[in-house]
Amino acid sequence: MSTENEGTEVPPAPSAPPVPADAPAAPASAPSAPAAPPAAEGGAPDPSAPTPPAGDTQQAPQPPQAPSAPQPQQAPSAPQPPQAPSAPQTTAAHPQGPAGPGGPAGPAGAAGPAPVGDWPPPAPPAVPAYASGGGAGSSWGASYQQPEPKPGGRRGGLIAAVVAAALIAGGVGGGVGYWAAERHDESGTGSTTVSASSPAGVKRDPGSVAAVAARALPSTVTIQAEGTNGEGGTGTGFVYDKQGHILTNNHVVADAVDGGKLTATFPDGKKYNAEVIGHAQGYDVAVVKLKNAPSNLKPLVLGDSDKVAVGDPTIAIGAPFGLSNTVTTGIVSAKNRPVASSDGSGTSKASYMSALQTDASINPGNSGGPLLDGAGDVIGINSAIQSSTSGGFGSGGQSGSIGLGFAIPINQAKMVAQQLIKTGRPVYPVIGASVSLQEGAGGAKITEQGAGGSAAVTPNGPAAKAGLKPGDTITRLDDQPIDSGPTLISEIWTHKPGDTVKLTYKRGGQEHTVNVTLGERKGDS
Fold first, then answer.
1. Per-residue exposure over 405-443, b if at least 16 CB sit within 10 Å of its own CB, e if not
2. Which of 60, 308, 359, 462 could, after both became Cys, cross-link 403 (CB 3.0–4.6 A)?
3. Alpha-carbon distance 411 to 406, whole Å?
4. Which SMART domains does this UniProt record tie to the protein (predicted)?
């Protein structure tokens, strides 16, 4: 493969009985409290009724008196009933008796309410003569007998009283709430929050991501590379040894190789000038050395990438899009993933790796940074990502992470770094044969002709000694399937010159297996 670097209704009130025309007119009924039975059926007066204006003092109702002769608007004389209750209060906790024809708040001299417990009520006032003459003539002149209170009368009054009490309590509560809110607003915050208790100290497991990051970050650097033409970029590296060597990708420092500028900045802000000691374009590995390196450098611990298993946790550290000291996490998604990568420039040559694949977020700027395992040991160098905006390798531009990141296994990177520190030049294992770089060919096919018109199979080279010829298709190296030329190169470069490998190839439809001792090539061609 190829890739790019980077409610219940209130019942109606019953009809009022006929009222004598000469009797005092009842005032308009005040609206009842919500959900309370009407006052006409024995309920308490509506607590929401307006208070009479100043000067119109409400008098307690007087017991009715029978008049000596019927006169309009004069209460007749009648036997004295028991003492009438005092004027009803809106906050009464006990129900009152049924209201008289004049209503509970009638004018002075109007009949007052009779106690509920006395039945029948006092005799009504004398009925004046109607058009038919006489006080007891036709039905219209018949005297009116007040009906006996219904059994539910007291209940209705109690409900009304409870509602009134609830309204008053709600008013008190609302007032307190308003007062508290007003006092709170005066504090200037305008918000109420809940804060967690602050423990004396937060203890984290030594194997937690936070603990691993805390140990590794001081040993990572953000690299700025600038070429003689002013062009350059940002990448990442990490402390390889106490002598000031920093391990990173070749494509991170490539612009500064020939006379450019190179700096490395630590998380504490300290910046150092640096120089390229050696770089391997094919492996995409480079070593730089700090000038005037501090004496307290702490190299990161190098793990064993051969022992990594799919599903192991990973932690990536780098400067994605220039955001230094960024930590992301994931897992090892795959091993031995053949990858041909490049920085996408027109002059860049491909690099090949049998990579560790991770879903830890890796973006442009992460290149050269460490890929750590759960213990904080380095298992790879973050190097490339698969882009969703292109078919893969070499499309140019910058793309973000889609969860497909690739790292050079640290075992391979360590071997290359040691070569670069020692000689400044990389050494590549080879089989001495040119293969097609076309993918999806079902294997690595040896071409008919080599680069620049040279022989496809180097005379007396490893492949020639093993009997390989142009047109042969290599399908397996040891136990690893080979599906293309880049895959074969990636697998060969995980070995060292002098190693013996077993190649399986097809010729004329027949499968053959041979052992090949790897040769070497020094430097980038």
1. bbbbbbbbbbbbbebbbeeeebbbbbbbbbbbbeeeeeb
2. 359
3. 15
4. PDZ
Terminal alpha carbon distance of the chain: 22
Selecting among 305, 367, 436, 490, the annotated active-site residue is 367
Q: How far is CA 175 from the centre of its chain?
A: 39
Instruction: Give the H/E segment covering residue 146.
Output: none
Point out the residues of the chain with pLDDT beneath 50.
2, 4, 7-61, 63-64, 66-79, 81-82, 84-117, 126-145, 151-167, 172, 176, 179-181, 186, 391-396
**Choice among 32, 219, 245, 251 that is catalytic:** 251
- Among the listed residues 2, 245, 279, 284, the single catalytic one is 284
Same-domain check for residues 444 and 410: no
Residue type, 327: V
Q: Is 284 known to be catalytic?
A: yes
Residue 495: domain span: 427-522
Same domain, residue pair 406 and 466: no
CB count in 10 Å sphere of residue 473: 18
Q: Is residue 194 part of a domain?
A: no
CATH of the domain at 246: 2.40.10.120
Residue 479 lies in a domain: yes
Answer yes or no: do 358 and 397 share one domain: yes
Tokens standing for 171? 């008013």
Please identify, among 420, 449, 465, the residue that sits at the C-terminal boundary of a domain. 420
- The answer to whether residues 352 and 254 belong to one domain is yes
Structural contact between residues 377 and 303, judged by C-beta atoms closer than 8 angstroms: yes
Residue 440 confidence (pLDDT):
73
Global pTM? 0.62
Residues 314 and 377 in one domain: yes
Name which of 384, 287, 403 is nearest 338 in CA terms: 384
C-alpha torsion angle, residues 488, 492, 498, 501 (rounded to 10): -60
What pLDDT is recorded for position 37? 44
